[in-house]
Amino acid sequence: MEPSSTRTLGRTGLEVTCYGMGSAPMGDLWERLPEARVEATFAAAFDGGVRYFDTAPWYGNTLAEHRLGHFLRRRDDTFAVSTKVGRVYRRPKTPDEQPIGPWAGGLPFILRFDYGYDAVMRSYEDSLQRLGLPRVDLLVIHDIDIQYHGDDAGIERCFEQLDQGGGIRALEELKASGDIKGFGAGINEGPMITRFLDRFDLDFFLVAMPYTLVDQAPLDDAFPRCAAKNVGIIIGSPYASGILATGPVEGAKYNYSPASAEVLAKVRGIQDVCRRYDVPLQAAALQFPLGHPSVAAIIPGAVRAEEVEQNLSYFRKEIPADCWAELKAEGLLREDAPVPG
Questions:
Q1: For residue 182, which phi and psi values (nearest 5 degrees)?
Q2: pTM summary value
Q3: Residue 54 catalytic?
Q4: Is 93 in the active site?
Q5: Which of 39, 50, 161, 259 could form an SS bridge with 254, CB 3.0 to 4.6 Å?
């Protein structure tokens, strides 16, 4: 596959490069990144043909948006950008008030969750100013799931803000005015796709988990429903949060936690099949999601130019049809999973 090849994202009409770039690591997710390394990492993606970039206020408590915008606004070529709504930021009220999040660094701003009309509009305008760009192409409703909202009642409160509180109306107005091309929802938990589809008319989903080489559960219901409505899909974690990049090594991460013995064994089996065809595990992981006709792009992150360059090489690697067929024959990949080719 060629990273610069494009697909239309659902019914947005927006063409995005099949290989995009996520920017969560640029919020100092695991370490404080020197600005020169950030610049070089973005440049490696851009020079490799990547023209779709995803970001969010949450990443480094607004740091990633600053960094991405600083890079992109000095580029003359066209590109597409998505950012997110649902977290609104303010300055600390006291010197002792500290930001939250997993960030090793980031900026000292304080969030509140808010999916209502005014919050969506403010988040949109704040993101434009942080990016230093006059537009973004897509807005994503960010992280309505139990991890951040506690329980089903917390999720329902967020849905009420979108519904009765006018958050969806704000997104519809921005789309109708041409300020954005479309809006969708970011998903960490597979069942949330159908919950959103039952309630809201979205253009796409950004799926961080679970549709990967390890798990294809959305094929049961969620993805067929998306296809029927021409709702596009972006895959946010093609490496399943780590294990498909590192391989089944001790301490490998799956779904942001240490991988179970069962997952380690499955990935070991996938890796063994891939090796028989001289296919790196990473190449199969990056290319597999794009076999589904609803998937427009994958957006792996990186923290070094060398990581981007290696990923682009994996993305270009030719994978024989027999490799996919053997993965299915061995029960390591669902028989009904569409594959590239």
A1: 180, 170
A2: 0.96
A3: yes
A4: no
A5: 259
